[in-house]
Specification:
Aspartate Aminotransferase, domain 2, binds pyridoxal-5'-phosphate, 2 domains, 14% strand, three-stranded mixed sheet, 380 residues, Aspartate Aminotransferase, domain 1, seven-stranded mixed sheet, alpha/beta
Length: 380
């Protein structure tokens, strides 16, 4: 078998050589449990604290307000739940969010802790800012939880106005910055932000919640006193060392992603010429330069993924966390629904009946994510 060209960087970015080197070095010196009080434990602990300080510095927060977690998923769970543990109110979020936000929102509603306002989205995959503002103006909002950049389309969300409005009226804004951090130089807004190492070429299984939302945080897992009891479980000093190295090269990493625009646009033009009737999902100026999501006319997403895999090209047809399900992408469904609602205003929207109107034509979608720094993986 030949080489494998990896275009799936939104699922996870390959480990950078400097992250790997830092992890190997940490393995030699920090094999102890970072909670142990002996010298070896303190050495492991130092790596976690260095990471905490670097995250705080990069994201302009206090080190006290950095909770290290095992993933972006954990950080989002903690942040979105926090305001509803001690009080009931409205949660504003959207169907474009990652499941680590949407599923928590659904659970909070089921548990009777929150009333969820699913913000309208545009057909090109941006949040409807006026809808969010209108909801804020009605009052009772305890948290707005929105993403900075979408995981499937790469569309950067217009959060400036939402941020300003939230700050004005004292409502916390949680921003899921997992796809933005290390990939765009734009400042990360929000009172709390979720980041994950593996999107900026660090290791998997380490993330962080950074900032303070004004509500007391509560753990979503029960266990030990790590991270002031907010995230029980032994943290991995090797992963922390890899994350720290990735953070230290964050500007080079961003530049690598941002340099892809011309190449990505050429790729899209070639695919659209090959498959007449196909369209680019989320084709707006705010889309990040390294992401491409194409609805291929007449070809099922899953079939396209398999066919490209056989040709040695790795792409996805949705979020990695939904791989293996036959459901259409909720993100593309929400965008498609909006386009459909504009044409047929009297038919119900996805949000009205809680499921996607795209279910009938899912066979038309495929998505791919590109990055010039193509990783070549030998598969035998
Ligand atoms: C926007 C977004 N949020 C959250 C996550 C979850 O991060 P993790 O995989 O570290 O749990 C992802 C993962 O792809 C993501 O794309």
């Amino acid at each position: 078998m030949g080489e494998f060209v990896f275009f799936d960087w939104n699922a996870t970015a390959p480990l950078a050589p400097e992250s790997l080197a830092a992890m190997v070095e940490a393995a030699g010196v920090a094999g102890a449990n970072p909670s142990s009080v002996h010298r070896a434990g303190r050495l492991a602990r130092r790596i976690l604290e260095d990471l905490r300080e670097e995250l705080a510095r990069t994201l302009e927060a206090s080190p006290r307000d950095v909770v290290l977690t095992g993933s972006g998923t954990e950080a989002n769970n903690i942040a979105v739940r926090a305001p509803f543990v001690e009080g009931h109110g409205v949660l504003v979020t959207s169907r474009l969010e990652h499941p680590s936000v949407t599923r928590v929102a659904e659970a909070l509603e089921r548990e009777g802790r929150a009333q969820v306002h699913w913000a309208r989205v545009s057909a090109s995959g941006t949040i409807d800012v006026d809808d969010v503002r209108a909801c804020l103006a009605r009052g009772g909002v305890r948290l707005v939880a929105l993403q900075a950049v979408n995981q499937e389309t790469g569309v950067a969300q217009p959060l400036e106005v939402v941020h300003a409005e939230c700050m004005n009226i004292g409502v916390p804004l949680h921003v899921d910055a997992v796809q933005a951090f290390g990939r765009t130089a734009s400042p990360l807004l929000g009172t709390t932000r979720t980041v994950a190492a593996h999107k900026l070429r660090g290791p998997k299984s380490i993330g962080a919640l950074v900032g303070s939302c004004g509500h007391r945080l509560h753990p979503v897992l029960l266990g030990g006193a790590q991270e002031k009891g907010l995230r029980p479980g032994t943290l991995d000093p090797m992963a922390a060392a890899g994350f720290l190295a990735a953070l230290r090269s964050v500007s080079a990493c961003q530049a690598g992603f941002e340099a892809q625009r011309a190449r990505r646009d050429r790729l899209e033009a070639a695919v659209l010429a090959l498959f007449p009737g196909s369209t680019v999902n989320g084709d707006t100026p705010s889309r990040l330069a390294h992401v491409s999501n194409i609805a291929l006319a007449g070809l099922a997403g899953a079939e396209a993924v398999v066919a490209l895999d056989l040709e040695g090209v790795g792409v996805s047809s949705g979020s990695a966390c939904s791989a293996g399900t036959l459901e259409p992408s909720p993100v593309i469904a929400a965008m498609h629904d909006e386009a459909r609602a504009a044409k047929h205003p009297h038919e119900p929207r996805a949000d009205d009946h809680g499921r996607s109107c795209l279910a009938g034509d899912r066979s038309l979608r495929a998505s791919c994510r590109t990055n010039e720094e193509v990783t070549r993986v030998s598969n035998g």
